[in-house]
Automatic annotation (TrEMBL):
Species annotation: Marinobacterium aestuarii
Pfam families (alphabetical): Abhydrolase_6
Signal sequence residues: none
Domain AB hydrolase-1: 7-238
SUPFAM superfamilies: alpha/beta-Hydrolases
Stated name of the protein: AB hydrolase-1 domain-containing protein
Species lineage: Bacteria, Pseudomonadati, Pseudomonadota, Gammaproteobacteria, Oceanospirillales
Length: 243
């Protein structure tokens, strides 16, 4: 019998290595196959142009996973923009998706712009576009994580230098995420919504709005930052196992 297949989807400018050992831990915890594909413009696909529409990202992923012999129904876990991609996939191809776990996500038709991106984070993001690689990664790390480690920042810097995300792709991804609307539709797959109370980028009210509209369970971490799987992977795994 084939193992259930989980697909982990990251956010703006992030790649599969930013998951750290979370994917392997999830695989061990749930006895599952776990895939962490890069999105066009990020990671190994950094030379590709990022699509302006999340629906195009979904089509890319569907093709990519067919090549990896990942068969439906899939279980999707999306962080930030990855949560929007997971939502789009679940809405357009419900027969392919068994479940959705959305972490610190937001939907433009359920939350206002100032909740989807906290006003205090906008100047930091604008400044990040002007910084060199080291400065940009340090700023992103401080914004997205509450649990800091010099070794992790050094790893992130090495990823950015090996696979640099172009400024044009940063802007294209930001536009795709900020313009995304779900149309108020509900996914057929069961869903779990997780968020962080101390998220410096996205107001947790966005996750609450999704959970309320979808009538899905909501888990709120009391102290983690935006990158919840980085800050407290054990808590995320426990929430999924309990669900």
């Amino acid at each position: 019998m084939a193992l259930p297949c989980w697909v982990l989807l990251r956010g703006l400018t992030r790649e599969q290595r930013h998951w750290g050992d979370f994917g392997q831990r999830l695989a061990d915890h749930l006895q599952a196959r776990v895939l962490c594909p890069d999105l066009p413009g990020n990671g190994q696909l950094y030379r590709r142009q990022s699509p302006l529409h999340l629906s195009d990202l979904v089509e890319h992923l569907r093709l990519e996973l067919r090549l990896l012999h990942a068969h439906a129904p899939l279980r999707l876990l999306g962080l930030s923009m990855g949560a929007m991609v997971a939502t789009e996939w679940g809405l357009h191809y419900p027969q392919e998706i068994a479940s959705l776990v959305l972490i610190n996500g937001s939907l433009g038709d359920l939350s206002p712009p100032w909740q989807r991106l906290r006003p205090g984070a906008l100047p930091c993001i604008a400044r990040a576009l002007l910084l060199d690689t080291a400065g940009r990664e340090a700023l992103i790390y401080r914004l997205s994580c509450r649990r800091h480690a010099d070794t992790t920042l050094a790893q992130w810097l090495s990823y950015a230098r090996e696979y640099p995300v172009s400024r044009s792709n940063v802007l294209r991804q930001f536009r795709a995420a900020s313009c995304y609307r779900s149309g108020g539709r509900l996914p057929a797959a069961k869903a779990l919504i997780l968020c962080s109370r101390n998220d410096a980028l996205v107001n947790p009210a966005c996750s609450a709005a999704i959970a309320n509209h979808w009538r899905a369970p909501l888990g709120i971490h009391p102290s983690a930052g935006h990158d919840l799987p980085h800050d407290d992977p054990d808590w995320v795994l426990a929430q999924i196992a309990r669900w």
